[in-house]
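target protein:
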Amino acid sequence: MSDNGPGSLLAQPLQRPSAGRAAAYAGLFLLGAVIGLAGTLVQAAWFPGGLLLALAGAAGVFLGGAYATGGRGGAVAPVAGWIVTVILLTTSRPEGDFLFGAGGGSYLFLFGGMALAVICATLGAGRQPGGGPARLGK
């Protein structure tokens, strides 16, 4: 039996984020883009350690954004910046330059980063009602 009455979180309408929260999301988007660019360069340079370092940095930004903003949107913002940057860097240019080789490390970085994005967005702190850590009941 669920209670979706007027006091429930599900019954509350969505509100526009405040200016500070919007600025935090924009900053996290840019930070995700920087981590994506740095991870692209590091993962190929020092193969086993660089790949782990790049994925650990991405996971730290994704999960840290969720905890910093207190919601899953804080994880989604850097994930979006990371994905946009990595996808733009996978395309080859007319000059023939590209940053991703056809090796296994590049695919591990791409798919590992996407898996970490899903994991961190799922583990991120969701909206919880205020109060103590005890289980809510009637």
Q: What stands out?
A: The mean pLDDT is 80. Helices lie at 19-45, 47-69, 73-90, 104-123. Residues 29-123 form one domain. The longest helix spans residues 19-45.
